[in-house]
Amino acid sequence: MIGYVTVGTNDKERAAKFYDELLSVVGAKRQWEMDKLISWGTTPGTPMLMIIKPDNGKPATVGNGVMVALAAKDKAEVDAVYAKAIALGAKDEGAAGPRGGDFYGGYFRDTDGNKLCVFCLG
What we know:
Elements: E1 4-8, H1 12-24, E2 29-33, E3 37-41, E4 48-52, E5 68-71, H2 75-87, E6 91-100, E7 103-109, E8 115-121
Parallel strand pairs: 1-4, 5-8
Antiparallel strand pairs: 2-3, 3-4, 6-7, 7-8
């Protein structure tokens, strides 16, 4: 099971503002905050999303094929999170909509270029 996922950032304050606003749509709040990282979750002990400045001091880069998927409760929440991401300056990677079977999702890149998907099943 996933405990947390980290995405790199080169501008912690900008990324923190983006994720504070974006993740509030699904009820997530900051869980941990340290010099190099901030994490968000819905309740303590459940999976978290973190932003982090790399420990090696080199610039954060986007991994090819790496994506974080955020679970939403329904299609309306998928639409809301996707719209909020775009409004906050995220780059569209595939508008929210059906993707086959009972999968409904929207894809975007955050302000550091990390790819995310917000989705629901059903």
